[in-house]
Amino acid sequence: MFDSLKHLKDKLEDVAEEHGDKITSGLEKAGDLIDDKTGGKHSDKIDAAVDKAQDYIEKLGDKKD
Fold it and tell me: Which Gene3D superfamilies would you find in this protein's record (predicted)?
């Protein structure tokens, strides 16, 4: 089971390295859509969540370097 998790982690790092810019862009668009649907009531929380997710994706991609 540990080997399966290790393989999954490696695959995620590969995807993040190769497509990190597309993923972070998609996260930004999703955050904007959610913000629009909630009428901007939770903009600060949505922005913080998107920023954290983008940072995580960047870190995953950096691990393969």
Answer: Helix hairpin bin
Residues 12, 55, 23, 39, CA torsion sign: positive
DSSP annotation of 65: -
Tens digit of pLDDT at every position of the chain (65 positions): 788 998 998 998 999 999 999 999 999 999 999 999 999 999 999 999 999 999 999 998 887 65
pTM for this model (two decimals): 0.80
The two three-digit tokens of residue 22, written as one number: 């597309």
SS3 of residue 49 by DSSP: helix
Name the residue ranges covered by the structural domains of the chain. Answer: 2-62
Q: How many CA atoms lie within 13 A of 63 on its CB side?
A: 14
